């Protein structure tokens, strides 16, 4: 069971991925994590990636896809995997498709979480982090006992730059420009399954499970 999770920043992909991992016992593959791991382990593709990273350049799609290919060939992926944060563009999706076909494999479902922009902004801009211990809070959904103060250690809470509204709006613009076309790409290939990401976490999880299990017959 090979899955791709799609959705804009703040859609809840990370949370749902963790729940799917627990349910099905398959690994979550984050391109950021495996890129760093490949460089550290000096795998063939990791060495190529390091050359670009050291030069301050973006790692080309073929190298990123090669690193993904290395990772999904590991034994813990034999029963399937969840790709999170990849592919980001149609070009990467094309490269991934060709690679999987060459290996006699493919993607079973592309699970897209749909959340409107105002809700995404509320989710992200409400985040606060403790400067001292790193504990996370949300002004609406998980507020500290005392405003601006960490309930765990009494440290000062702050808003990360990535969580500011202007930064978040830019991230959403990039998502729409680069990643949103993947919705059409996978829709045309009858792989796309769109899930309403506006509900409760458990409701969204149940919807994902229903989609996956119904296809397994």
Characterization of the model:
By secondary structure, this protein is an alpha/beta fold. It has a domain at 2-26 and 79-116 and 179-215: Rossmann fold (3-Layer(aba) Sandwich). Helices cover 49% and strands 15% of the residues. The chain contains 9 helices and 8 strands. The protein has helices at residues 13-24, 31-41, 44-54, 61-72, 90-102, 117-125, 165-179, 181-188, 201-215; strands spanning 2-6, 28-30, 81-84, 109-114, 127-130, 136-138, 157-158, 192-196. Helix 2 (31-41) packs across helix 4.
Task: Please render the helix and strand layout as text.
Elements: E1 2-6, H1 13-24, E2 28-30, H2 31-41, H3 44-54, H4 61-72, E3 81-84, H5 90-102, E4 109-114, H6 117-125, E5 127-130, E6 136-138, E7 157-158, H7 165-179, H8 181-188, E8 192-196, H9 201-215
Parallel strand pairs: 1-3, 1-4, 2-3, 4-8
Antiparallel strand pairs: 5-6, 5-7
Helix pairs in contact: 1-9, 2-3, 2-4, 3-4, 4-5, 6-7
